[in-house]
Amino acid sequence: MKVGILPLDQIDLGVKFDRELMKIKTRLSEEDVNNLKKRCRDFLIEAKSQLEKRLSDNLEIISCINNFCPSKCLSQMRKDYKDIPTHFFDIHEFDSDKIESQYRKLMIFNWKEEFSNGCIPDDAIAFWSVVRTYKNALDENCFEELAVSALNAYCLPLSNATVERIFSHVTNVKTKLRNKLSTVVLSAIMRIKTSLHFSGNCCKDFAVTKRMLSLFNDSMYGASAASSSANTSSAPAGSHMSLNYTNEDFDKVIAVPFQ
User: Fold this and answer.
1) pLDDT band at 57 (very low <50, low <70, confident <90, very high)
2) To pair with 54 at 20 to 30 A between CA atoms, which of 38, 95, 214, 259?
C-alpha cells in the first residue's frame, strides 16, 4: 500500500459508486471488487496529481485573490495589508500608501446601506463594483484605487479556457464572407458579445442610453458630416469609402455599456 493512502475499505468513493456496486456485487468476486476500488482510487490519485501540475504556479495567486472576498476583507480576522501581494496594485501604478489607507478604512463603513436589500453580496465582483462607485460627502471616490485593484485581480484567467472560448467566438464572427473586417471593428464586436454573454443579457434586451447615442456623431469618424457627404457624392458608383475612425473613438462608444 502506498504511504499516506487509506486502505480500500476506508476510502469513500461516493454514494453513487456504492449504489452501482451493490447492483453488480453479486456477479463479482471479492477480488474483482477490490480491483475495481483500486482502479477508482488510482484514478483519483492521478487526477489530483494532474491538477497540481496544472495549478502549481497559480495556487499562490488563487489564494491571494481569495483575500478580496467580501466575507474575508470585512472580517475582524482578515489579513494585514502587508500580506496582500502588491502586484495587483502595480497594474495602474497606484500609490501604495493610499491603497493601504483605503484598506484600513474599509471596515469602518457600513456597506450594507449601499445595497438595496441591505445585505453584502457574496459575489466579490458585485461588492467591489459598488465600493468603486462609492462617494463620500465631498463627492470623492474614496475607495476607487483599492476597488479597481481588487477587480483587476478577479479579471485574471486561472486557465486558458476563457481565451480558447474567445478564439472560438472570433472564428464565428470573422467568417470567409466577412474576412475583411478590420481589427478595430472585430475587437468592438468581440467586446460587445463577451459583455452580453457574461452579463447574461441578449442583444434584443439591450437598452441604448442617451449618452451612447450622443457619441454616435460625425466626430467618431474623424471627419465632418459635410466632408463625408461630399466625398461620398464624388466617389465612383459601387466604391466603398473607408471610415477614418480610431481605436480611441471606438473605445469611447463601446465602453459606455460597461461603465
Assistant:
1) low
2) 38
